[in-house]
Design a protein that fits this description.
alpha+beta, Cytochrome p450, 5-stranded mixed sheet, 3-stranded antiparallel sheet, 12 strands, about 50% helix, globular, Cytochrome P450, monooxygenase activity
Amino acid sequence: MYLYCGLTVVLAYLIYRCSTLVTGYMQWLKLNNSFVHLPFHWFFGTLHLIKNFKDVFVIHEPLMKAGHKVILYWFGPYRPVLATVHPETVKVILKSTAPKSKGLVGYSLVVPWLGDGLLTSDGKKWERNRKLLTAAFHFEILQPYVRVYNSVTDIFMKKLEKTDSEFIEVFEPVSLATLDTMLQCAFSYQGNIQQLGMHHPYVVCVQRMGYLILRRSVSLVTLITPLYKLTKEGKEFYKMCDYAHQFSQEIINKRKLQLQKESEEEVKQRRHLDFLDILLTAKDENGEGLSDIEIRDEVDTFLFEGHDTTASAISWCFYALARYPQIQEKVYADVCKVLDVSTDLQWKDLAEFAFLPLFIKETMRYFSPVPTISRQVKDPMVIDNVTIPKDTIIDIHMVHIHHNPNIWSDPEEFKPERFTKEAIDSRDPYAFVPFSAGPRNCIGQNFAMNEIKTVISRVVHRFRVEYDEKRIPEPIPELVTRAKDGLYLRFIPRIPAE
C-alpha cells in the first residue's frame, strides 16, 4: 500500500514537471513570432552559426544596426536567449532585480570557480552580502589604496623602461600589475606578482580557466556538466578550480590567524583596513557573519573581477593613446596640470583631471572591457511591448549598446567629447553601461576607475605611447575584451621640459 502511494506521488510529480516544461517551452516558442532572429536549426538553434564567442556578436550586428532593440537566438533546443542591444530595452532588465542566468548557458559555467559570490548569487543572499560588502568600497577605505596604485605603477614603469622603446605585448604585464594591485589592496598580500611574471601559477590558472569556459560555452554537448567532467578539458578545468580555491583559502587562513592575534585597532594602525578584513569581521543585523565558504567565494570573485576587467580597460586605454596621438597629447596636457610637481598621484588629484576621465570612458565605450552580461527573469516581464515568460535568459550586449548607430552618432569614431556633461545629459543614461547599472551594478567601479586614472596618468606623464602599424590588434570578446594576437605597443620616455 505504502509502495503504491509512493509510486503514485512520484508519477504525479513527474507528470507535473513535464507539463510545466512543455508549457514553458510552448511559451518560449511564441517568442519566435515576436522578435527578429536569424534562421535557426530545429536542434542546434543558432549554435551552428557560432564557431567562437565573437560570432555571437558578429551574426547579430546587422540586426542591431537595422534598429532592432531585441534579438532572439537559441543555444540548441533548450531555451531561447534574448539579446538586448538598445538602452530602452536594457534599462528594463537592469532596473529589475532579476537574478543572474544559471541555466545550461550563463553564469553556471563560472560557478565551479567563483562559487556563489556577488557576481553569481541571487535573492536574499545577494541582498545581505551586497549590504555587508558595500562598506569595503567607502571612500575612507579606498583612499589609502592610492599609495598601492602608485607603488604598483612604479614597478610597471620600471619594466617599461627596460624595454628600450621596443614594441612589447602589453596585456600580460598590465594584467600582472592589476593583479598585484588587487592582492595588495584587497588582501594586503605581497607576492612579487610583477617580478614573477606570467609564470605565476595563479595568473596562468586564471587565463586558462577563462579560455576553457569560453570553449565550453559554444559547445552543445559540454554544456551538460556530467559529460563535461568526463572530457580532458573538463578535468583540467576542475583541477584548476581546485588550485584557485587553494590559493584564495591560503590567503584567508593567514589573515584569520593574524586577526586572532591583533585587535581591529592594531590592524588599522599597522596597515590599511582592506576588503578581507571587512569580509572576516562583517556582521548583519542578526549579528551573523559570512560563512567560510561565502568568504572564499567573495575572495575568488574579487580576485578575478578586480584584476582582469581592469587590465582590459587599461590595456585598451594604452592602445587608444597610441592610435590617436592628438588625443594622447590632450591627455598628456591634462595630466601635466595635475602632476606638475610630484610624479606620485595623490587622492585629491583624482578629482582634478578634466580630459582624462572623458578619454577613459570613451575607451571603455569603444572597446567594452566586459562585452556582455546575462540575467534570467524570475517573473514575466514586458520588454519591447512583448511579455517575456519567466526563466527566459536575457543577454545585455555592451558591445552592441556602445556601438549602436541608432544611439551614438558615428559610433566607430573615437571621440572623448561624447562624455562632457552636456553630452551625457542629452543621452539616455543606459546608453553607456561598462559597469552594468541599477541595483546589481559593479560594487567596485570606483576602485577600478581610481586605479585606471592612476596608471594612465602616471604612464602618459613619463612615456609617449606608439602602436605597431604592422600588428593592428583585433578586439576579441571573451570573459573580458582582449586582442586576438596580442596588443603590441612601445613606450618612449618623454624628454623633460626645459
